[in-house]
Amino acid sequence: LNNKLVFEMNITGSHIIENRPPVGATGFEGDLLLSALAANPTWPIYDTATGDLYQSIVTTERSPVAMLEYTDDKTRTSRILGGISGQYEIIKGLFYKVNLGLDYTNANRFVNQSQKLNYMTQRNGSGQISNKELSNYVIEHTLNYEKSFGEHRLTLLAGYSYQNLMQRGTKMTG
Description:
The protein is mainly β and 174 residues long. Helices cover 8% and strands 59% of the residues. It contains two helices and five strands; from the N terminus they run βααββββ. The protein has a five-stranded antiparallel beta sheet with strand order 1-2-3-4-5. Helix 1 (32-38) packs antiparallel against helix 2 (64-70). The longest helix has 7 residues, at 32-38. The N and C termini lie far apart (62 Å).
């Protein structure tokens, strides 16, 4: 096509697996960092009578070591980010360009707090499964005209863009 047509493309993918500690307002009963600050520093790591991790009989006093050991929180996130474009020179100085873009993310989170935690014995532990899906699609059409007149230059640009954003998710707790 006499160098009038140009294509460009890029794509990036990622898959992340996170093993998260019980920190912050993320659906946990308690917070590891606050529990570590509030815990009695003379508490032993293990209960000498049972050999299990030491936990206070008062359920509001949480052992940070037991929280780490008896809480499992994994998140798996996959993401694809990509784009493709094509540009065609219709006549000298007049270019038509189409651009397509995609950003897609899917995350799955699995949280388990064992009934071995002193504050979970009444509830037999807890579990949570959640999923979040995000997508962003865009299509753009542009016409670009460039013309020089001696020392002067004229540039005209016209275009249209459409974007579709979607977010959905589910959460189950038990």
